[in-house]
Amino acid sequence: MNPKVDWYFSKNERWEKEINKLRTIILDCGLTEELKWGCPCYTHQKNNLVLIHVFKEYCAVLFFKGALLSDANGILVQQTKNVQSARQLRFTGLQEIIKKENIIKAYIYEAIEVEKAGLKVTLKKTAEYTIPDEFQLKLQKKPALKKAFEALTPGRQKAYLFHFSQPKLSATRKARVEKYMQQILNGKGLKDL
Fold this sequence. Notes:
This protein is α+β, with helices and mostly antiparallel strands. The protein contains eight helices and five strands; from the N terminus they run H-H-E-E-E-E-E-H-H-H-H-H-H. 45% of the residues lie in helices and 15% in strands.
């Protein structure tokens, strides 16, 4: 146990018993405990394998390369359709964790084997994302915008495409494109200041 992480397990009153049990299970699998992104993160040979995090409705063990696990029990959850690699095991009570302890360990051991084998999740390329019509029209009308967008890193491009695609209404998509055009022209990402 890493003392730098202890605070996390006492601050989450709602899930305190559950996450402490998950911590014990994970450490029993021989992983190293660290604090990353404000959460307990468990590594194998310095590679991130799993982390524990809590939400209002559940607590979870997140597998960084969960998409590569066989999921023999069909219990891994993809948080949203846009999450490509990570998968969660979600829990709503201590008894559920106790009952599934052997399954949790089996998933962790499989994640260790995936890491040892050097397997990587094949992520979608930026070109595979749909460009909303409202943004495509601006790219066609403004060559400087197209050039600036193409000069952004793939991660920044994906963030914009995702942000522009989310609204159901065309007017909202158009407003988002208008709002961020200058930021794109300035070579900045969606969250850059």
